[in-house]
Write a structure and sequence with these properties.
globular; six-stranded mixed beta sheet; alpha/beta; 11 helices; Rossmann fold; three-stranded antiparallel beta sheet; 283 residues; 38% helix
Length: 283
């Protein structure tokens, strides 16, 4: 019988000592994590909940590696994250890398976690393990120019209303551009070494289904109870009443979202058609 393990991360703030005074205060991320853990538990997963202060890189990677040691072909990992998203340029200066290449980041409690780091952890799972990732955070775009446009007063007013320039940190799950640049300059050597090391270890592909809260050039909204994306996900899930596979699940969530925040669906590796057709969160 297949085995399911799930890891649910919700960060309502980050450590200001690690982010030069920025605490990244949000409202609904812990609720998102609790609600996703409840879905997993109801569907036969053994769930682990990590909230705010426990959401460190060491703790989260330790949990992922423990899961990788337990799951075998035919089993499933569900990974959910609710918190801030950020972006970081490629720092290696390799000739074969385009100058505008960016790494998206998950803003963990103690530092930014590169998308390539997450993928490396997924690669450690046995071939045939189904991996599902649900990310309710901002993915800020594919170039510095698009991020600056995204965070302009005009763009923020379009998405969050006239008060948005003063309230963007409360309304959107994005690490502010000035803070991203400040942290990058402070920790440039660390992240350059990290990026170089990740490029050296390609490894086997991970067969994963990922559903993100928005497109690269959009912001993900926080909320008073749940993030906007998680709120609509829960509505579509309908306490387990949803019928369909992962693509249909994404499509139906998208129908409930405003055009300014359109959830993203993508896969890595070669997940099987049978996997994609399964009802979401099926062990």
């Amino acid at each position: 019988m297949p085995k399911g393990l799930s890891l649910h991360i919700g960060l309502n703030s980050v450590d200001p000592d690690r982010y030069d005074g920025w605490n990244g205060r949000l409202v609904a991320c812990e609720n998102d994590a609790r609600d996703m853990a409840a879905i997993a538990r109801a569907n036969g997963f053994s769930d682990t909940l990590i909230l705010t202060r426990d959401g460190t890189v060491d703790n989260i990677t330790a949990q992922l590696r423990e899961a990788a040691g337990q799951l075998k072909s035919g089993d499933i990992l569900l990974f959910t994250y609710s918190g801030h998203g950020g972006q970081m340029p490629d720092l290696t200066g390799d000739a074969d890398v385009e100058t505008d290449r960016k790494d998206e980041t998950l803003v963990f409690f103690d530092r930014q976690f590169l998308d390539d780091e997450l993928y490396k952890e997924f690669q450690a799972f046995d071939q045939g393990v189904r991996i599902v990732a649900v990310l309710d955070c901002c993915h800020s775009g594919t170039s510095i120019e698009s991020v600056q446009e995204l965070l302009s007063p005009q763009a923020l007013e379009t998405q969050f209303g006239s008060s948005a320039p003063q309230q963007v940190e409360a309304a959107a799950r994005v690490m502010p551009m000035d803070k991203q640049e400040q942290i990058l300059e402070r920790d440039r050597a660390f992240f350059e070494d990290l990026q170089r090391g990740l490029k050296k270890g390609n490894g086997k592909p991970a067969d994963a289904v990922l559903i993100g809260a928005c497109q690269d050039n959009q912001l993900a909204s926080d909320g008073s109870v749940n993030g906007l994306f998680t709120e609509k996900l829960l509505k579509v899930w309908d306490n387990g009443g949803f019928r369909g596979g992962y693509r249909e699940f994404h499509r139906d969530i998208q129908k409930h979202m405003p055009a300014i925040q359109s959830p993203n669906f993508y896969t890595t590796g070669t997940p099987s058609d049978a996997f994609l057709r399964q009802k979401p969160f099926t062990v």
